[in-house]
Every structure is written in structure tokens, then in C-alpha cells.
Amino acid sequence: MGKRMHIPSYIYDLSDIFDDMTDIYMDICHVREEGNKMIAHEMGKVILPVLKESSVL
Q1: pLDDT of residue 10
Q2: CA distance linking residue 34 with residue 31, whole number of Å
Q3: Could you give phi then psi for residue 35, rounded to 5 degrees?
Q4: Per-residue three-class SS string for 23-57
Q5: Contact 17, 39 (CB under 8 A)
Q6: How far apart are the C-alpha atoms of 39 and 41, rounded to whole Å?
Q7: For 47, phi and psi rounded to 5 degrees?
Q8: Measured distance CA(36)–CA(56) in Å, rounded
Q9: Which of 6, 8, 29, 46 is deepest in the core (most CB within 10 A)?
Q10: What is the mean pLDDT of residues 29-53?
């Protein structure tokens, strides 16, 4: 695999969350319900602490 470019701090790389999964994709780029749940969970781990810190929650 090639060397990864530097990723800015405001971008979160979730490209590996499906590495150990099978039958996640319904086609070349769309994921099934379980895949969407996994994406939402990972996004929540990033977003919720920020919202709590800013007193939004």
C-alpha cells in the first residue's frame, strides 16, 4: 500500500471500519443498514464529545 497523505485534523478517516466485515456493501459504494449503523456509531464518537464540551447537550 502507498504512503498516506497528511490528513487535516478536521477530517476523520473511517476507511478501515469495514476491514473485518463481509456483506456490508449493496453495490460498489452504498452500504447496507449495518454499515450505516457502524458509520453513525463512529461519527458519534467524534461529534458527541465536541457537543458536550460546547454545552449543546
Answers
A1: 86
A2: 8
A3: -65, -40
A4: CCECCCCCECHHHHHHHHHHHHHHHHHHHHHCCCC
A5: yes
A6: 5
A7: -80, -45
A8: 24
A9: 46
A10: 94
